[in-house]
Amino acid sequence: MQILVVGSTGKLGSKLVEVLSQGYNVVGIGSIELDIKNFNEVMTVIRREKPDLVVNAAAWTDVDACALDPDKAVTINGFGAQNLAIAAHEVGAAILYISSNEVFDGQSRQPYHEYDQSNPANAYGYSKYVGERGVIESNPRHYVVRTSWIFAHKGKNFVHAIIDAARLKKQLRVVTDEVANPTYNDDLAAAIGLLVDTGRYGTYHLCNEGSVSRYQFARYILDKAGYAETPIEKISRHEWKRPSLPPAYSGLANTLGRHIGIRMRDWQDAVDEFLLREGLITTA
Fold it and tell me: Which residues contact 279 (CB under 8 A, 6 or more apart)?
């Protein structure tokens, strides 16, 4: 099978190229090489590569920036995704779209299942919802993969930010009423690889097991990394002023993945391995 990974220079995209290359012929193309907003450009590339599967790991993931420019967010995350789905369908290829827990409004207190009603509460979530609809309606051979709170090697993420702040003895203020699933980038890529192996199209929630607040996530990170004495001030989402207000509760249940044998480990175990590989702890 020929696979084209779009957004292959990103953290998830580059890991997907590595994982999928173990069993398939994979070509990666970065966002600079392919502007997914340009339908003609997308069609040209897809026709040239003639893949059996297009993996769309290209996205604008700056949630606050999306709130400031929602039209741009929809153009990239929504219409860009539709462009790839249409082009893939034309050459007989399937499409895999990476979506987000933020397509839900956060009003639930139970983990969201794959077919629960979407109702995005912010511009980023809406742009990903538009992308989902564009993919589903444009290509019957589709995978929609929702995930949340990805932390990855290389570059900065929530784990690095919390530890760096503790090192510098900065005051830490973390929200208690934003809840989701911390997800290790490497675990997500491996799970997507397993999903592709099944050939079972549909909508899936792939994230590490367990929903936790931002505060609990931060506390666990510091305790494991040797900063158990570092205090964290508990605050609400409304006290942390930002352009985009995230959903309060957007935990995801991996119901369909488990049904076909794709299980992801608990988020704590994933964080332990991440910290170990980063050299931030000596034993997990």
Answer: none
Could you state, in order of their start, the residue ranges of all structural domains in the chain? 2-155+182-211+251-267
- Compute CA distances 213 → 67, 114, 197, 281, whole Å: 22, 21, 33, 22
Report d(CA 227, CA 155) in Å as an integer: 21
Instruction: Say if residues 36 and 42 touch (Cβ distance below 8 Å).
Output: yes
d(CA 177, CA 249): 8
Give the CATH superfamily of 2-155+182-211+251-267. Answer: NAD(P)-binding Rossmann-like Domain (3.40.50.720)
Q: Which residues contact 157 (CB under 8 A, 6 or more apart)?
A: 150, 151
Provide φ and ψ at 125, rounded to 5°.
Answer: -60, -40
Distance between CA atoms of residues 126 and 79, nearest Å:
12
Q: Where are the beta strands (DSSP E) in the chain?
A: 2-6, 25-29, 53-56, 94-100, 142-147, 150-151, 173-175, 179-180, 183-184, 202-205, 212-213, 233-235
Cα 142 from Cα 201, distance rounded (Å): 5
Which residues 6+ apart lie within 8 Å of 199 measured at CB? none
pLDDT digits (tens, 9 = 90+) for 151-183: 999 888 999 999 999 999 999 999 999 999 999
Instruction: Determine if the pTM surpasses 0.70.
Output: yes
Task: Select which of 97, 112, 124, 204 is catalytic.
Answer: 124
Read off the tokens for 163: 């530890």
How many whole angstroms separate alpha carbon 282 and alpha carbon 284? 7
User: In this structure, is the dihedral angle defined by the CA atoms of residues 131, 82, 182 and 234, taken in order, positive or negative?
Assistant: negative
Which tokens in the block code for residue 182? Answer: 């911390």
pLDDT at 284: 64
249 is catalytic: no
